[in-house]
Every structure is written in structure tokens, then in C-alpha cells.
Amino acid sequence: MGGTLSHKSLGKIQRTILTLIWIAPIVAAAAGPPVFKHSDVVFMYSADAAAYKAYGATFVAWGGASTTSSVKMHHDLGIRCTGAMWCLTAGARLLYENTELREAVSRDIEGNPVAVPWLFDHTFKGMPTYFGCTNHPAFRQHVREQVRKAMAGGADGLHIDDHLGTAGSVIGHGGGFCDYCMAGFRQYLKNHATPEQLAKAGITDLERFDYRDWVRKYAATRKEYLKIWRKIPLMDLFERYQVEAAAENVRELGELGAQIAGHPILLSANAPILHEQHRPVVKYLTHIVSETHFNASQGTTRLDDAIKTFEIARQLEKPLAATAFGWDWAHIHATSATELVRVWIALTYAHGQWFMVPHPTRQWCFNNERGTHWHRAPIAEYAPLYQFIRANARWFDDFEWADASGVQTTPSLICTVRRNENRRALAVHVINRDYDPKTDWMRPAKHVRITLPSRLAEGLGGTANLLRYDAAPQTVPIRREGGRAVFEIPEVRLWTVAGIEPTGSQ
Ligand SMILES: [Zn+2]
Fold this sequence. Notes:
By secondary structure, the protein is α/β, with parallel strands linked by helices.
């Protein structure tokens, strides 16, 4: 639904119908029809029409459509679009200029503001970039104004970056100790802690409980605190409180976004769900748009974090639009390892998720030496892969996860199996991980034998259609060995999708 709809010729009545159609996936986001298609092509930030066309874009996930004209421009191209904002900080400049916002920052156990470590290079007249406190009324007001601006054009969705807000400053950075956070935690304990838990923790008077007094018994300075914070009593509950408060904030921002846009909206957050603190928010989202660990500096040897992330998204029943982390992109920027990025793209789609188009002008890179910098990802290197997906949408859309255990093949390959229950068809994705970093190229795997266990082989036809982005399609016979199905792929260079129709349909 939706991804390829053009608003160009829709009259008012049709618009109303469209709005009603869009309610359905949002209301039924957990178990209902998919909001998106597996063959969708997702841009991270907005780009020009030529880039959208080169990639066959269907959705822009991370903002760029905050005005009526930019929303219209996307809709005219058949692309759904979003407004974006973040809950991280008001930014160094506003903190410098605005006393109220300067007060509304995350504070450590000493009462000092906590700076965002990875924005060390973002200062204004000596003012660092401090974490805003999403529990403080002034900063809450500020982020709500950002939502109003982001959704003023009536975009299809709202994307929230740094959704953890204050909770992000709690985990590993020593923040979360302002008066508002303390009041919030007191309330949280009232609602969530059992009398036994409170007694065990030695809290006799919850009305006058201030967690800072408690923490100071263990650590009076940030430095001390950061050494032992995990061991301080009630810290688990404190962290849970902060994370749940952040999730509730996102839910409210989504509500506000829909109100401003005047229609139900898609709602996403940059939630790297490999980390547990990013999961509580997911229940409020229609989809996840997130940075994912691809461990670029280690070639294809450490793809397990990404694969695990895809698996968690599947279990949470939310589609995931992934990109690599800033340091992965910094590696790509420094080495021009385009083949490695193509592996990420293939791997992500093979798991039923989307890898966002490497941005032609603004792919965020970060490392300690250079801080924030930007990569221009060459369209010619990546567009053919996305065009392949668009052209073969019938082997992606409505194909859902199937258990690949028992599938036998060469160890240097990654296999996933996806099944279309309606068509009773199977798509076997075979990805080469035999990567040579020196040449930035895959060593092709020749004469690859794929054996499907009888559980998967049952009902399949006699041939497999081998699809590649860099070669013409090929058809190979499927042999039967007992109940198992066996076929051979002459060469797996980067990625082969073996599409198999059910018996009787060929
Ligand atoms: Zn606070």
C-alpha cells in the first residue's frame, strides 16, 4: 500500500478515501496488513528528482518534507515523505542564546550539564552541545515546536532522531539528574515499585525520596559515578523509568504530528534495536528507521550484528529501514569500498528489510579524527542494485521469513529463505561473503549446490529462476533427492535470488 501512489490527480474525495485507507495500517500496525512493501526503495534524506528516479525511490524516511511544496514535490513523484526532528539537544547556538533552554538540559549527579560526546565539534561561542532534558517542560516545549515545524507541510510521516532524549544521557554519560527527572522517578516508583522492593531498598518515605541523595552515597562526582553507576541500587528501575518516559514522549510527539498534519501519520524513530534500551519505543512506531552495526572495518566478517538486528525487527513485527553507523560510513568514505556497501544492501533486502539508499550528497560519516563529515555515494555504483529490486518486486513483495535451518550450501555463503504463502512460491537469497578488502570485490563462488530440506521443498516446481542485478536471469533444473530439492547455481558473485514457483505453475 501507499508507496507507489501518486497524489497528482487525486481529487478531494479521493484524498479522503486515501486518508481512510492510511488509518488502517496505523491502527492495525502490530498485526495488520503491511504498511510498506519489501521492494520499497527508501531514501534517508531528501534528494533531487533525478536521484529519486535513478533509484526508483518510493519513500523518504528521515525528513526533508516539512513544507507544503516539498510534500507536493514528493507526492507528484509518487514518493511518500516525512518530516524529521530530534530529541537530543536544542543545539549549541540556541543554548547560548536562550536562558530557558540552557536551564532545560540533562544534568549529572553534581548538577552540571552533560555534553553530547559525539558533537564535540558542534559549539557556539564556546557553548558546548548539551543533551536537552526531555523531562523538563522548557525542552519538551522546544521539541514540540520542532514537530510543529517538521509536520507543517502535512508529510506522510514523522521521524524522530535520538528518541531516547534524556535516557540517552543516562546510559553511559552520567545524566538524568535534574529536578524534573527526580520528580518523574518518584512518580514512577509510586506506580511501578512494589512495597517489598521499596522496603528492600530502604525507602521509608517515598514522598520525600530524592534519588540524588541515594546516588551520592555511592558517588558524589560524575567521574566516580561513571565507574560504578551500574552497581548503584535502583539503577535498573531508574534506567527503565527514563527509557519508558522517552518512549511516552515519542508517542505524544506522534500524536501531535498527526494533529498538525491533519491525517494519520507514519511514525518512526532512530532505534538501533540491537540495544535493549531502544526496544520499548518500538510498540508506538509504524516502522523503525535506524543506524545498524555493519562493522565496515572488518569487511564481511562481522555481519552478525546486522543479521541479529534484522531478526529482532522481525520478532517485533516492525519493518526496518537501515543504514550503517557513521563510523561504518567513515570507513567507506576513506576506502571507497563500494562492493562492501552492496553486500549490506543485499543482506538487508534478503532479510526482508530495507537498506536506505546510500545518499548521493549527504551520507553522514563520523570518526574521532574527523568528527562529522559527509560522503557522496556514487549513484552509478548502487542504483543498479535498487533497480534490480524494483524490477523483480514480485520476488520480494509478500515474501515473508521462512525457517532456513536445514538448507545446505557452501560455508562462505549466507542463505535466507522467504516464502509467499498465497503463491506458494519460495525465494532463496544467496549472498556471497567471500570479500577481498584489497580489491573491494567478491571472490565468486562457482558451482554452488543448494539443498532444501523436505519441509521447504514440498510443492515446489521443477526449475529455479536465478536472478542477479549484474547478469541476465538464468533457469536451472531442480533435482529431487528423496524429499529434498537440489539445484546448482553456476556462479554466485554478490547476490543471487533463486525464485521457485510451485509445482504445476510452470
Ligand atoms: Zn532531567
